[in-house]
Amino acid sequence: MSSFSSSLSCPTYRSRTWSSPFLSNHYHSSLINVVDPRRSLSFHYASPQGLNLDELCVRSQRKSVQSSVVAQDGSAVTKVVAESDGGEHQSTVSITVVGASGDLAKKKIFPALFALYYEGCLPEHFTIFGYARSKMTDAELRDMVSKTLTCRIDKRANCGEKMEEFLKRCFYHSGQYDSQEHFVALDEKLKEHEGERLSNRLFYLSIPPNIFVDAVKCASSSASSVNGWTRVIVEKPFGRDAKTSAALTKSLKQYLEEDQIFRIDHYLGKELVENLSVLRFSNLIFEPLWSRQYIRNVQFIFSEDFGTEGRGGYFDNYGIIRDIMQNHLLQILALFAMETPVSLDAEDIRNEKVKVLRSMRPIQLEDVVIGQYKSHSIGGVTYPGYTDDKTVPKGSLTPTFAAAALFIDNARWDGVPFLMKAGKALNTRSAEIRVQFRHVPGNLYNRNSGTDLDQTTNELVIRVQPDEAIYLKINNKVPGLGMRLDRSNLNLLYSARYSKEIPDAYERLLLDAIEGERRLFIRSDELDAAWALFTPLLKEIEEKKTIPEFYPYGSRGPVGAHYLAAKHKVQWGDLSLDQ
């Protein structure tokens, strides 16, 4: 009996005898450079009869590591680290959340780390440090973190006990983000907890981008591991345009190697986004249809039913195109449209994504609609407009809505419009991918379907959030003596099919960073290609001071978005009658 390997099937580390996954391909610190020529491998595992694969969390198996260590005097030393039969007890992972007092850390990062601990996905020896400028004791950090922790719905029996155990592993160190002295003090605290074990360190930068480089400089020179790996997770935004993004990458690479930098886009950790390649490459019925021959258009839709609400100061500096389109939606598009990779190795997948991005046609302003929400009353309640937010400059032209038509100039997708739509203060909260197939040529049942052929088009919908689902719209005969057709859904609703709670995206991405799996993180050349596509458009919008089309708070967005779709002979799938 065979089974697929599961990325988040994580039993307790203590009960396994397998190699530690916490060594990277390239170690870098200010003291030594450790080069390890190994490659991480993913296994499709053959299950012996009677063995429950849910009890295994195996991504790679290695018996020992032979590393070449280059000392400061230039001499080479060969070092062998045994990793079998309890080798994981010789290593430890220290996770430092830089910016621990912020909302992202409290609402996402600490809860995700606890969920990983609860599922047995963290190693036996680990320590979590919060680092921020705020003055706080260990007890105060634990009290703050405890208020945001929750247990899995199906595993609440020992919830309190697990929380107490987790919080005992959490500590706090106060310091400035640009202070070498404070990071040296952090390093001393980390060493106290690591003891004589092989130390691996992960820094999560949950801080504003203008202080990324200062924090990385201090962490690299004063608090990186001297005998294990050091990795840094960097949150978006990665610059405002191609120039600032390249400058940020250049600055980070002064202190880190590329494979130490984990640029996180949490949408790539969404369950349905990760399932996209599984759906396409492991089901024979889809891959032959995945081209211009059968697909008429593809839509990537993101909507929020709330405005900036106090975050206008941050948002006004970026806008919806930078905040959502250039990263979240474009990354999903690249995964959707890429050619079959050589393997599931991170570099093979990212190579194919880069090819897609480099094949994309420059975006024309006439293929873009921008909008901004205005005040509107719904049910007697008045919702403020974007510029009514006190944190937003008066007269701001920053778009809170954008729709665009993009094209990929390659053999597979030539002529197929890829439509993006993203907005705030709309009538619903959702994120979905819609694949509309071509009309059936010479359809025998056209006269039974009516004159609107779009209403009979097959459509594959992947709903990323909320209520995760995959469904296929087909035409079906209504039961009875007559010949009347009906559009029906073949529906996979995750909540009905799977009893297990879907992990949060941050859980998956944090686990991948700890294990050195880079598949869902953004490489520097991916970032360059993404900004090369959007920077000319953004520059043109800002130089021409393009006025956004206003739309009421809680509406479906600007009317111009419908004209844009019609221009390319498309109807937005989320606005069709059967929604």
Tag the structure with descriptive keywords.
single chain, 579 residues, alpha/beta, 9-stranded mixed β-sheet, 6-stranded parallel β-sheet, 15 helices, disordered N terminus
Description:
The protein is globular. The chain is built from 15 helices and 21 strands. The protein is 28% helix and 22% strand. The relative contact order is 0.12. The model is unreliable at 1-8 and 11-88 (pLDDT under 50). It has 579 residues and is an alpha/beta fold. The chain has helices spanning 103-118, 138-146, 159-167, 180-194, 212-222, 242-252, 271-281, 312-315, 319-337, 346-358, 446-449, 494-497, 505-515, 524-543, 560-567, and strands at 26-28, 33-35, 64-70, 76-82, 91-98, 126-132, 170-174, 198-205, 230-235, 261-264, 295-303, 368-374, 376-378, 381-383, 401-406, 418-423, 430-437, 459-465, 469-477, 485-493, 549-552. α1 (103-118) crosses α13 (505-515). β13 and β14 (381-383) form a beta hairpin. The protein has a nine-stranded mixed beta sheet, sandwiched between helices.
Into which percent range does the helicity of residues fall? 25-40%
> How many DSSP helices?
15
Q: Approximately how much beta-strand content do the residues carry?
A: 15-25%
- Mean pLDDT over the full residue set: 82
Assembly classification? single chain
Structural class estimated from helices and strands: alpha/beta
Low-confidence stretches: 1-8, 11-88
In angstroms, what is the radius of gyration? 25 Å
Largest sheet: 9 strands, mixed
- Give the neighbour order of strands across the main sheet: 20-19-18-17-11-16-15-12-21
Distance between the termini: 41 Å
Q: What sort of overall outline do the alpha carbons produce when their principal axes are compared?
A: globular
Number of strands: 21
